[in-house]
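Case study.
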Amino acid sequence: MSTLSEFQTLLLIEEEEKSWIEFTKTSPGKDRLPDLQKLLNYLEDISTARLIIFRNLDLFSQYLNSVDEFRYWEKVIERLNRLPIITIAIIDGACFGVSLQIALACDFRLASIGSTLQSSEVKQGYLPGMIIFRLAKFVGLGVAKRILFMGLPYKVEDAFQVGLIEMVFSVNEEATAVNEFIKLLLPVQPTAIQLTRRLLDESFASSYDETVGHFIAAQYKCMN
Amino acid sequence: MNEKTHAGLGTYLLDVATTNPGDKYWQRDLASLFGVQDKKIANIFTNSNIESRYLSLPSADNTGKIPEETSLDLWHKHRNTSIEAGSKVITEVLERLNLKPTDIDYLVCVTSTGFLCPGLTAYFVKELGFKSNIHRIDVVGMGCHGGLNGMQPIVNYCNQFNNSYGLLVCVEICSAAYVFDTTISTAVVNSLFGDGCTAAVFGPNHSAVKSRPQILGFESHIATEEISAMRFDFNGSKNSFYLDRNIPYVIGGQVDQPVKALLKRFDLKVRDVSHWIVHSGGKKVLDSIKYALNISAHDIRHTVSVLNDHGNLSSGSFLFSYQRLIQEDRVDPGDYALLMTMGPGMSIECCLTQF
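After joint prediction, the assembly is written out as follows.
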C-alpha cells in the first residue's frame, strides 16, 4: 500500500489494483479543482489502479456559485466518466452539490444507513449541474423530478429501492461491505469497462442503427 | 528548445477556400438515378450517414437514368473540372489574403481522381500566372490522406525560408473516377465520395487573418500489411476503387500510434487537444476513431457534418472541416488542433497545430 501526499485536499491511497481517494477537509470547490485535475492526470497517465473509491464525499458537499464553476466542474466530472477504471462513491452523511455530482458520475454508489442525497438548487432558482442529464438515467423522469423539484433530503434507503444506490450498510460494516462489493467487480478489464460505460450512456440518445455501428467499432477495439 | 513556444515564428495555416464542383445530389435520389434495382445496394446509399453530395455527372437521359460515361469522358471531366475548380479556390484564397499568384513560392497539387501529364501544377501556373521559377510538386495517387502529405514539403520550405508562402491545392473529382456495376463493393464506393476542391495558403503570421494556427509538427503511420485494403483496380477501361470492409476498424486499431507519438513530442496528451479535424472517411471509420481515441461526437462534429453534407471528399476533406471550425469562431489562442487524414497504404497522417 502506498499513499501519495502531494494533494492539498485529498489523500490517494493505492492498494494493488484499487485506489482510495479520501477527501480530507472542507474547502471551497475552486480550491479542490487543481487537486482533482492532478488526480485525474495521475490516474490517466501513471496509476495502475483499475478501481477507485471516493470516501468522505460529505466533506465535498457544497454548492457552486457561478456558471464558470459549473463549467470547470463538469469538465472534471466528464473526465472521471471517461476513465478506463471502475469508479465507486461511498456516501456517508449528507451528499449534495458537488459531492452529489461526483457520486452520480461514478459507476456505483454505496451508502451508510441514514445518509441522504439532496439537490435543492432548483428551489434556489438555478440548475444543479449536469445531474439533470445523469439523474433520470438512473431513476427515470418521475423520481428525478421529485428529487430535483422538491429539493428534500432523499434517504439512501429509498434511493436503494429505485436503483440509485447499490448497497446500504451500517457504519461499522463499511469495510466488509465495500470489500465484498469490490470482489464482485474483479477482475477489471479497462478497455471493456470504458467502452461499455460509454455505450450504455449513449444508448439513451442513440438510435439502434447508430449504436450497432458504435458497438462494432468498440468491440473491434476490445477484441484486437 | 521547447517546441510549444514557437509563437511568432514558424509557418501558419493562413486561410482556406473550398468549392464543390458539379451539381448537388440528394443521396436518397442517387440510387434510382443510377438505375439501382437491388434493395441491398439501395440501402447502402441511404444508410451512409450522407445526405447530399456534389457530383459532376451528365444529365439523366429520357429513361431518367444517368448514362454511362466512357473512360475518355471521365479523363476530360477530371482535367477540365480540376482546372476550373482549382483556379476558383486559388483565386479566392489569394484575394482574401491580398496575395498575388506571384507571391507564392511553393505550389503543391494533390489528386487521386485522374492522371495528367503535365500535372495540375503546370496548368495552374499557366492559367493563373504563378512565377516561372515556382517550386512545385504534384502528389498523385496517395488517396484520402494525401492532403497532409502535400502540406509537409510546403511547411518545411516555409520554415526554411522566412516570409515565403506556400499553396496547397487538393482537387478531387471523384465523379471522374468511378465504375458503376451491380457489386456491393462498387456500391459502397459510389455511395460515399463527392467532388470537392480546396486551396490553403501557408506562410508567416499575416495581419489579414484573425484565427490561424501555427503548424507544429507531423507524424506519419503506414501499415503495409493492409496495402491492398484500399486501392484502385483497373477493370479494363476504368479505375474502380476498392475498400476493404474491415479497414475502418484496422484504422481505429492503429490510430493511437501516430496521434500519441506526435503529442508526446510536444509533451501533450489526447486530453490537451481542443479541436479534432479528421478526414471525413465514412461513418464506420469515424466511429472507430472516436472510440479508439476516446473522443466525443462533439469533438468530430465538423467532420461528421462535412460527411453529411458532401460525402467523402478525399484529400481535401479535412480542410472543409477545418474551414467549419474557423467559421464556428470558437477557438481560443493557445488551443491545440490535431489534423488527421487516413487512406491507402494503409496510412494515417497527423499534423499538430496551435492557435
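Observations recorded in class. Chain B touches chain A through 15 residues (CB under 8 Å). Confidence is low (pLDDT under 50) at residues 1-8 of chain B. We will return to this complex in the next lecture.
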